[in-house]
């Protein structure tokens, strides 16, 4: 064991070799006893080799501040180590000596800091040391600092002086270095730029660095782990710095923080779109709508939005909807866990992947069934979440829900899955982890809502088998040769009902799930009243059902708000954007090859008159164009000409949006459109009127010898908007006029309104009878709902519940759905060949808002950077 030597100063003994790097002032007498091995300016390498009595030899590096003031800055038993320290510190200390003050205590502290820094990297230059230690006097008093010195990088860390100043949060030093125009694009050995270090420093520092020229060039720079500066700010939970990045004005690409280990993601096709270069602007209100607890995993602002207003705004910037954060969660995963229903609806309507897996294989539905909330999993199911999805632990959604029932006690969540066919765990799974709600031999299906007891018995059949089974069977047996000679078409009819049109869309989605092509490929004739006219027009123009669903939810938010009557201007603006201002009814035939009927009610006369907007010429127009007076004489007399203000109303030359607006002019909900009221007033279920028009057109064409233009009706599909229980009403028996009978008059008015809006019972039976006689299969799809929503329903949870019940109804009648699907697949003529993607025929303009303003901001930002 080596004995220690002591340095004494002011009667204080310091034991050496406990700390080889200790910096202390030595007595003049003490160090003059040493043997000087080497000297360079104020730095000496000495030894005690001639000291008497000598117990062992050691070596020291000394710094001579003044003739009577010397500091021991290093000592060691190894000459090699001592020489190494002497070599790397001598030039640096000699250069810095002239900046040292006269105060010995300050000099001692400076020496200690310098030697500590050199132990980290002995290759650092004087500029590096002063930047790391905040020696601002070096940068203010030294006029000889060159660009090369400011941008110097040395092995092994490759830091620049500015890297070190930012890393140590030295704001005054940073300002001094920035005044000398350093190169901010330089990166260290970890590929980290100065901006990376600023992102984990302070708000003041990051503002300084962001406001330097050409910052945009550095925002997307990634380190060796694939992290951008914004990644790092998120991961270390520097939320104030993240907000500074957002205030700065970054593009969609810069704000899309895909997981660091997927560096190639920033160069995928989706991120090379022009929309990725749009600058995103954030307001103070936007910052209030950001949830900081979701920032630390990265992702993009879609992950962080906690209110629908901000979510809708971000979606218009075309952020990639399925961006992953560090956990592999998409924005839909996050809002599912946080139970943010409105944000979820915005994402789903915009096209987010409802079945995306995170790094554990969990889908959003896996997350939502763990929570004590019914509406969120209901929503995901309505938007076609895979109810049998399994995560990487081989746990199905039903398995997770069954386990969660025990902790939450909400067994109704399990019923949401079982009622639409979620499968139990197979016998091969570890059954000790299962319970009665998911095991293959269990018998628990969850708790059913009281309103749903006995609902199955109220579900109508999709078609009456005793009427149509033989007809369907006979048509399916027809030979392909006979089928090829016919000009067969299918007819789709949609009822009116305001926002309840969502039920019609959900019914069609459940049919379309089983079809090989988009559903609009299977129908050539369409008839729709009020809300049904919107859906028919959208389908005929190539919109997918998911896009139409999205439009309806947006219509609910944008238009059905406030007090009745709602803004007709907002409604007209929305449908003009969707259909186009100049697209006319005849374009639906000439461009899309669809025969479309839209009923409305001419209300400037008594009685009101059914008016049909068509995409094809009416019988009267066909006869008038033929110039055959004998045929024209067979038409009914036009009594409209007797009206004082008679005018001829357009048929095929009217714009589509105007026809739909006229058909949807529901009294007390919207203003009348010119002379038209809602088509519900005359034809709420347009099936019979469509069949009449179809028949009359065929007969007219045959009388004109235009046989090749005639169509043969092959199937009629009539879709409702949901129906509820038949309610008891007071009997109306008015024996006299007077105030005492006001209630009876009110009851009578209600009965008349209900009868005008009737779409079931005798209305359907007439169409059935017509089709039976014509030997045309007739399907009527209308869901019974335990809690029927209003035609202007604004509560999301009620709408979602109705759509889930519709899905349940279609699952319950799945056997008849298969009959319909089989018939459509085997009998529909001229089906186009399509890819597996059945949903994106036409993009909604609502989801594709103009980004020219953001692009202009981006261009201006680049110009200012270049300056």
Automatic annotation (TrEMBL):
A motif (GXSXG) lies at residues 528-532. It is an enzyme of class 3 (hydrolase). GO terms for biological process: exocytosis; lipid catabolic process; positive regulation of ceramide biosynthetic process. A motif (GXGXXG) lies at residues 496-501. One of its GO terms (cellular component) is other organism cell membrane. Keywords: ANK repeat, Exocytosis, Hydrolase, Lipid degradation, Lipid metabolism, Membrane, Neurotoxin, Presynaptic neurotoxin, Repeat, Target cell membrane, Target membrane, Toxin. Coiled coil: none annotated. Residues 492-691 form the PNPLA domain. It catalyses: a 1,2-diacyl-sn-glycero-3-phosphocholine + H2O = a 1-acyl-sn-glycero-3-phosphocholine + a fatty acid + H(+). It is found in: Target cell membrane. ANK repeats lie at residues 157-189, 327-359, 360-392. The active site is at residues 530, 678. Its EC number is 3.1.1.4. GO terms for molecular function: calcium-independent phospholipase A2 activity; long-chain fatty acyl-CoA hydrolase activity. It comes from the Eukaryota. It holds the Pfam family Patatin. This is phospholipase A2. It comes from Blomia tropicalis (Mite).
